[in-house]
Amino acid sequence: MEILGLHYAIWIVVILYFIGMLALGWWSKREAKGRDGFLIGKRQFGVPMMIMHAFGAGTHPGDVTGVMSATVKSGASGIWVSWMWMFGTPFYWLIAPIIRRMRCLTLADYFEERFGKAATILYVVMATVGMTVATASMLLATARTVQGMMGKAEVSEAGPAPAAQRAAAAAATPVVGAPETKPAWAARGLPRRDADAWFYGILFVTTAVFLVYSYWGGIIAAIRTDFVQGLMIIALSFLAIPAALALPQVGGWSGTVRTLMERSPDYLGLFDPKTFSLATVLLLCINAPISMLAQPHLMTVCGAGKTEWEGRMGFTYGNVLKRVCTMGWCILALVWLAFLFKTGERVHPDAAFGDSVRALLSPVLQGLMLACVMAAGMSTGSAIQVTVAGLFSQNIYRHYIRPNADEDHYVQVTKLTGLAIIAAATAVAIYMRHSVVTTILDYFNIMSFIGVASAMGILWRRMNQGGVFTSLILAAIAFLATRYFVTWSQAELVASGVLTVAADGARTWAPGCAIGTLVNCGLLTWTAEKLTCSRLMVTALPLVTAILGGIVGSLLTRRPSPEVIEKFFKRIYTPIGQEARLDLPFDEALPPSRRLLTAGGLFLMKPSRQSWTGFLLVVAICFGLVGLMLALLAI
Fold first, then answer.
1. For 53-62, how does the pLDDT look when each residue is reduced to its tens digit (9 = 90+)?
2. Cα–Cα distance between 160 and 235 in angstroms, integer?
3. CB-side exposure of 17: number of CA atoms within 13 Å?
């Protein structure tokens, strides 16, 4: 028996899941008393909870859907949709204790202590904008993924692909001679108006549920539900793989590799010259820890544990766990791609995950998988809602609007602000419903602007409020220029005489043409018949201009107070539990013999054995995961 197109068992599993999560949020309500309890969970959580919180807060359906979609289109290189954070992960081991030692409730407290009030307001505004866009992308990805799994999405036929893209688009375009009857697993599809109605319904229901349990229990509810949902997401990553490998058309993993190799060796390449070249991947990995330093939920991910060790283990290995799960998503996508090639069937890449679930799992397991997808989105949304709302209540409302209110009042303001942020994110999700990629890219770049300033404040004593503003303005201009304004149509270039297009679509640039040189260097790329900046350019130019802007802006403005700088660096290099050292003179608390680098105003202390051994271990794990993936692709 089906209800709204889904087997009744699926509805039972999903409803039981929702009841369980709401009950957990209600149970957590009794412990979310006061600002410290609501925002930082009274710093009570151990390693398992912190690992699952970091994993759940950083994982949502956009990761699964993005990796599956990109892999079905272009092969194994699609793994970098999520793995672009891979080699930033070892730095999380070093970042976590620094964030914990700031002894702040929100990351905006750090900006106020290090740079001043104006920089704090700037951070709150930009972080709120960036994380609202991030939440919108999460909501949109959740709704679209669930919509696809339910078979309620609008289905569109892929048009003829350009000659240069035919191989990559083979699984997404009709195969000559393929039967007209759709297989049972295929998306049923609906007219646009009906599909939009389902999208709105799924979006509003999902948003309402995580609003309720986050409103009740604050970060305690978010962390506890992350623990449950994290286990479910791990199951999500690997549950369908054995069933996919058992398909007779596939022939196991060796059959998958053989099928893809026969189609094109590029499907088994871990780097794609057009989207994820080696240079682009390296740059994204450099940008990842910088962007992470601007994330408002970083304080809870690193600071809600009992000690520095819990924060370190949780932040680092929660993300290592995500890297492992990403391998599962990519492997499932490759197996499903081989199945499509063998059966001569077609699928829209964005629906690949939902289609594979419907084909491979029983109704009960489909219900579990559907709950997992919604859990992933809700865990991320709840963490963002609580932490971003805390920025406003702690650093603007408490300081400038109601400085003398009682603590319960501030908690209530935080909750109401969270509702407003989610409402804004829902509106953005509806407005951007046709462009998930745009929302994700905008979020990533907006947070990197602030991340550069945050990182420079930790590493460079001369960084000041002027540097923060200059860095942000220059990076924003560079991002807007490369992302939206630097573009040419093919017709314009042909008309100007710098480009010639042959009948077969081959393009030839005029001798000495600078645009042609940029195309050959991979800094500009073709999207349909428009020439735009490549991902390498969009990532590199804002990052470089942000760093240069921070340096120039700081050097041209007043040097920060030595007392403020010394107090800040004493705090971030004094471990939790050794607060007596904070009262010592600067050279006694941080003796010159323990300093690693002080040239040019930089300030780095020698890392402890725990720091450098833990860092090298995670580096080895990251290289091991890449090596394992390369070995699997070579079987």
1. 677 666 677 7
2. 37
3. 26
